[in-house]
Amino acid sequence: MDTLYLVIPCYNEEAALPETSRQLRLKMSSLIESGVISSRSRIVFVNDGSDDRTWEIIEQLHREDSFFQGVKLSRNKGHQNALLAGLMTVKSKCDMIISLDADLQDDIDAIDEMVEKYYNGCDIVYGVRNARDTDTAFKRKTAEFYYKAMNILGADIVYNHADYRLMSKRALDGLESFDEVNLFLRGVVPMIGYKSDKVYYARKERLAGESKYPLKKMLAFAWEGITSLSIKPIRMIMTLGSIIFLVSIIMLIYSVIRYATGSTITGWTSTVVSIWAIGGLQLLAIGIIGEYIGKVYLETKQRPKFIVESYLDDNE
User: Fold this and answer.
1) Distances (CA, A) of 262 to 16, 258, 259, 269
2) 161 has which bridge partners?
3) Which of 158, 161, 255, 269 has the fewest Cβ atoms within 10 angstroms?
């Protein structure tokens, strides 16, 4: 029997943690009792600089039951870095890790099938939503656009997959070799390779608390993913610039012909519109290029993606 660790990033999840911990403990206990996983398996909560009682609850859970472990980051570093911190902190202690969110919208019954696929030789198993019935029409449309846009712009991500996934120790070792500071795990994990599969599940309503990803944050997260994984936006600017250059040559030839035939007319409107259009395009191009230069700047600094302040394990 192999050892399974569950890694759950937490940011201000005091409302959800009591019920989350109860349900996950029951699930892990049933897997241990049925001989699917080792009794050395554990549940690890990662506190991402919460400003509520999240860490106090994690400490209490650990005191009452050492099956629960906790990783406390020195400050808030964002969901992706918090998740990576948990994975890298405990990867040497287990054979496989399943990451999931603290709100338990991801169906924990899918864990059984994930583990089964791991024993069948898969190093990575993606948890994929089979429907978006619980979302509003606006949310469904924006999510569909998000995944399509990401793939068009060069970010190879799994459709309807967030961060609910199983990774073997070998896959985690591969993930550790990616050194970039601008981290987007949904795009990085597929780059690892190795045998992978999918498990489909129905997403539930949030257990408690509020979503940590409103529309504004989701858009920022999508842009982070695109610019971290692909240079297609810059290539699109180059293509658009080439098209405009060709159009300008055509317009130049047209203007010369009109002048030669004595048919010139003062074109105030077209001149103003073209100036605004070209000016806006230039600012957009500079902004996108600047985004990439900024990322290069951050990468060269090689700042740590996270700093672990404390780790509650079996020895505490």
Assistant:
1) 77, 6, 5, 20
2) 128
3) 269
Domain housing 84: 4-147+160-210+308-312
Question: What's the DSSP call for residue 44?
Answer: E
- Cα–Cα distance, 99 to 24 (Å, whole number): 12
| Per-residue confidence (pLDDT) for residue 262, from 0 to 100 | 63
3-state secondary structure of 261: coil
In a domain, 266, yes or no: no
Give the total number of structural domains in the chain.
Answer: 1
In this structure, the dihedral spanned by the alpha carbons of residues 213, 216, 222 and 224, taken in order and rounded to 10 degrees, is -100
Residue 297 lies inside a defined structural domain of this protein: no
The answer, yes or no, to whether residue 4 has pLDDT greater than 90, is yes
At 11-23, the pLDDT tens digits run 998 888 999 999 9
Tokens of 291: 């985004």
Residue 248's H or E segment, with its range, is: helix 232-260
- Domain presence at residue 221: no
**Does residue 292 sit within a domain?**
no
Element spanning 117, H or E: helix 110-119
CATH assignment at residue 177:
3.90.550.10
pLDDT of residue 46: 95
* The dihedral sign for the CA sequence 124, 7, 113, 105: negative
The pLDDT tens digits for 106-133 are 889 999 999 999 999 999 999 988 866 6
Q: Which helix (H) or strand (E) holds 22?
A: helix 17-33
Tokens of 180: 């970039």
Predicted model pTM: 0.72
Question: Which of 37-41, 279-283, 289-293, 300-304 is most confident?
Answer: 37-41
190-207 residue pLDDT tens:
888 889 999 998 877 765
Q: Edge-to-edge strands of the sheet including 4-10?
A: 196-201, 124-129, 161-168, 96-99, 4-10, 42-47, 68-73, 308-312
